[in-house]
Design goal:
Layout (H helix, E strand, L loop, with lengths): L17 H4 L3 E9 L6 E7 L21 E2 L2 H11 L4 E7 L7 H15 L4 E5 L4 H4 L4 H9 L2 E4 L20 E4 H7 L11
Parallel strand pairs: 2-4, 4-5, 5-6
Antiparallel strand pairs: 1-2, 1-3, 6-7
């Protein structure tokens, strides 16, 4: 007899706040990569996640104290790396970016100030779009600064390594500006599968 699959945690709206949990730590920073979204990207992995998805590819980053504190020096390095003309944009991963809004908002606001929309911003999250719509103001502010959101918890029973930029079939690649403008989820128009 097989054991039932463990499921990720499911918060109530506004149950988990960055103010309560975030320690403003960064698990890792990877400049100039090709795997965390479209084009050449700079990726920041923030620390801390409460979804605890079974099969998570970055279990160490679930700890809010994993890695190092976010610093102005790191932010300046990210901005310098993004200024390279061949870099398409920044990716926020984790951990959970929406439980680390102080760090992510500070960085995203600076990117918009210095680059406008010439650099895109992607983020992965365990939250679904519909859950974020019921969340705290800081999470909605972060969402409004993004271009692309890959939403939803990783589900082992829907794992599919052939999917574009996703680990499980329930996750969606969402065009954030179009979705906000139309007040409904609009899937990224470059989605292959």
């Amino acid at each position: 007899m097989s054991r039932p699959l463990r499921k990720p945690n499911n918060p109530m709206p506004k149950e988990w706040t960055a103010q309560k949990y975030s320690q403003n730590y960064v698990a890792d920073y990877k400049p100039f990569n090709f795997v965390d979204g479209e084009g050449v990207r700079c990726s920041i992995y923030v620390s801390g996640c409460l979804f605890l998805c079974p099969g998570c590819y970055n279990v160490a980053a679930q700890n809010f104290h994993f890695g190092q504190p976010y610093t102005q020096e790191l932010e300046d390095q990210i901005i310098e790396d993004l200024s390279q003309e061949y870099v398409q944009g920044l990716t926020l991963l984790g951990g959970e970016p929406f439980l680390n809004t102080d760090v992510c908002l500070q960085l995203c606001r600076r990117i918009r100030k210095e680059f406008g929309h010439s650099k895109d911003i992607w983020s992965w999250t365990g939250y679904t779009w519909e859950e974020l719509e019921q969340e705290t103001y800081d999470k909605m502010r972060l969402l409004s600064l993004l271009d692309i959101l890959v939403d939803g918890r990783f589900l082992e029973e829907e794992k599919d390594l052939t999917l574009q930029f996703r680990g499980s079939a329930n996750q969606r690649i969402i065009d954030v500006p179009k979705s906000l403008a139309q007040n409904e989820v609009v899937i990224w128009d470059k989605l292959v599968r």
